[in-house]
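Ticket #4471: structure output looks truncated?

Reporter: J.K.
Steps to reproduce: submitted the chain below (320 residues) through the standard prediction queue, then opened the result file.
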Amino acid sequence: MKCWSVVLLLCISLDTFAAQKATIEEKSVVKTPSLKEKLQNLSQKNAKNAAANNTLIFDLPVTYNKKVSNWVHYYQTRGQKWFREWLTRSSKYMPFIQAELQRANMPTDLAFMVMIESGFSSRAVSHADAVGPWQFIAPTGTRYGLRNNWWLDERRDLKKSTLAAIRYLKDLREEFGSWYLVAASYNMGENGLRRQIKKHNTKDYWTLVNKGALPDETQEYVPKILAAMLITKAPNLYGFRDLERMDVLDYEVVSVPGGTDLDAVADHLGVTRKALKDLNAEILLGYIPRQVDKHFIRVPKGASNMVSEYVHSKSRIARE
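Returned output as attached by the reporter:
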């Protein structure tokens, strides 16, 4: 195994060179900048430093070996098209997921599990019927409080599934200790991993991989996460340039009664029907069944008052 220090040193060297160049250029300027210009320059410098720091910070252990290298290469070549799509989506969803992880005092890099599990898609379904961004199977989802019935599947809800995943990952961490084993157990199931740990008398993920003790998918799961982490934190270094950026996911929550149709709400707000349904992916039918008393839906930031007024208006008309 090789550590990531070589690439980190390269990044640090590049940053140092850029900083030295900036200093030389600043000294060559004869004109004394105004106070306003100084404040603008300071603001820009802080933003650049923050971006550089984000590139170098990892809060999960980083291993760089042949398996990780193979996945880095794959994402740069045959998998480049859809990895680029993941990177684009990550600008929208990653900050949202990482904020929840940070609130729970969990490593924010666990968010890369969502990139590998589903590519951030709420509608992703696996061959094993795992559903949603965190790919919960039904029994595990139910165990961690995600409702699933004929009109509602909370495994598809990014906020609710992330909070459920955090509780699940905390339980796995308490049992297995290593974050690599946490990821492995998330992928293959706790029972299977317990048996292999007992059989081989080791709690080292890479030892279990080398012994062939884990399913093929699980042997590649952690390397995929590590490769995604490395590329996403320094995309230019791996050839991913001119990436499209999406607005960070943001919304408001508002209570609506049974019978509320998402298409009608979207039309009233002047947003696309798809956008509103994506915000409320847990609602399988596209509407709240009439027999349901009320349900909280997500709407674009600043739209909750409009929705409340719309609901009251519809209710008043119905009573008349």
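Triage note (M.O.): checked the attachment and the full token line is present. The first strand starts at residue 251 and ends at 257.
Status: closed, working as intended.
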